[in-house]
């Protein structure tokens, strides 16, 4: 049975859901405005440092002299007392069309505090202005940066981990696969929250949980997929890592709610990882919805889940 706090929150989320969500949710600009309004609260007393990460563009690249193309905005979240050599790279969700370091600052802060780490959150490029693989390229830049740079500048890391929610969760797995294939350094561990790992939306829960999840309308998934991929096959293994070769990845923690449309993405991803010999832990939370951890301030279940993430990342 859901706790009273959970029942109250679900009722509030349903009441806030606009009747024309299915239409407005396909407009990236409206999704961005809604997400900024809904979740961009600043955590009091938080040390946030904005930085620019440099993309590795060849001199003959037509974008080489374009500062907006060369530099990617990002921010460091620095909890009081955190070890600045232990670094979390966090990839925000938003269906690849929305979201930013600002919208996820509260969630990232809680995870960073639980892990006693600083967190680097890249403001990766969004679709449809920047389609696949732009977000993946930016995620790899951020991961590589964290190994050699902290919030105080150039400084080697003693530990780097990776985490993300929703589209950012799928991007976590794609980033690991791409970095492995390129011979780049891999993080010690990685965690996903309600990962969107199958952009084709073939999971049974996309249908069975469509009327249950108060956060993520299943009807929007295919539209966001088109914005992100264009004409690219949604089964591309770096777009939908449910189809990727997962051998050689670091230990994974996959958290997902039992009442969300993306339940099967994490369940199938965990099975694929286990088959590939990856150390993987799957946590399915009864009665909980898409990225419920973002509501840890109101939900004891969210606080417990984040405590588990923190312990896993620092283990």
From TrEMBL:
InterPro entries: AB_hydrolase_3, AB_hydrolase_fold, GDXG_lipolytic_enzyme, Lipase_GDXG_HIS_AS, Lipase_GDXG_put_SER_AS
Record flagged with keyword Hydrolase: yes
Keywords for this protein: Hydrolase
Matching Pfam families: Abhydrolase_3 (PF07859)
Catalytic residue list: 166
Entry's Gene Ontology molecular function annotations: triacylglycerol lipase activity
Superkingdom of this protein's organism: Bacteria
Every Alpha/beta hydrolase fold-3 domain range: 88-293
SUPFAM superfamilies: alpha/beta-Hydrolases (SSF53474)
Signal peptide: none
Keyword Hydrolase among UniProt keywords: yes
Family membership: Belongs to the 'GDXG' lipolytic enzyme family.
The protein, known as: 6-hexanolactone hydrolase
UniProt organism field: Sandaracinus amylolyticus
Upper classification of the organism: Bacteria, Pseudomonadati, Myxococcota, Polyangia, Polyangiales
């Amino acid at each position: 049975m859901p706790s009273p706090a959970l029942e109250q929150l679900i009722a509030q989320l349903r009441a806030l859901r606009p009747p024309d969500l299915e239409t407005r949710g396909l407009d990236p600009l409206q999704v961005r405005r809604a997400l900024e309004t809904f979740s961009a609260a600043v955590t009091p007393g938080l040390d946030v440092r904005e930085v620019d990460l440099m993309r590795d563009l060849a001199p003959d690249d037509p974008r080489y002299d374009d500062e907006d193309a060369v530099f990617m905005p990002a921010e460091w979240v620095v909890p009081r007392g955190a070890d600045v050599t232990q670094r979390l790279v966090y990839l925000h969700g938003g269906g690849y069309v929305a979201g930013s370091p600002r919208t996820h600052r509260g969630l990232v802060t809680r995870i960073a505090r639980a892990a006693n780490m600083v967190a680097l959150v890249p403001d990766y490029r969004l679709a449809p202005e920047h389609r696949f693989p732009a977000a993946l390229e930016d995620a790899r830049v951020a991961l590589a940066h964290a190994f050699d740079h902290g919030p105080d500048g150039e400084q080697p890391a003693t530990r780097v981990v990776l985490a993300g929610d929703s589209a950012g969760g799928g991007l976590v797995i794609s980033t690991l696969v791409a970095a492995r294939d390129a011979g780049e350094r891999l993080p010690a561990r990685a965690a996903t929250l309600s990962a969107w790992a199958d952009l084709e939306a073939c999971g049974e829960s996309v249908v069975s949980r469509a009327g249950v999840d108060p956060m993520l309308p299943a009807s929007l998934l295919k539209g966001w997929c088109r914005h992100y991929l264009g004409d690219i096959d949604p089964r591309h293994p770096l777009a939908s890592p449910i189809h990727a070769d997962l051998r050689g990845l670091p230990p994974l923690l996959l958290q997902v709610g039992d009442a969300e449309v993306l339940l099967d993405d994490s369940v199938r991803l965990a099975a694929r990882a286990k088959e590939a010999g990856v150390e993987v832990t799957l946590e399915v939370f009864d009665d909980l919805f898409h990225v419920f951890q973002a509501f840890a301030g109101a939900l004891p279940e969210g606080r417990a889940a984040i405590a588990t993430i923190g312990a896993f990342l620092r283990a």
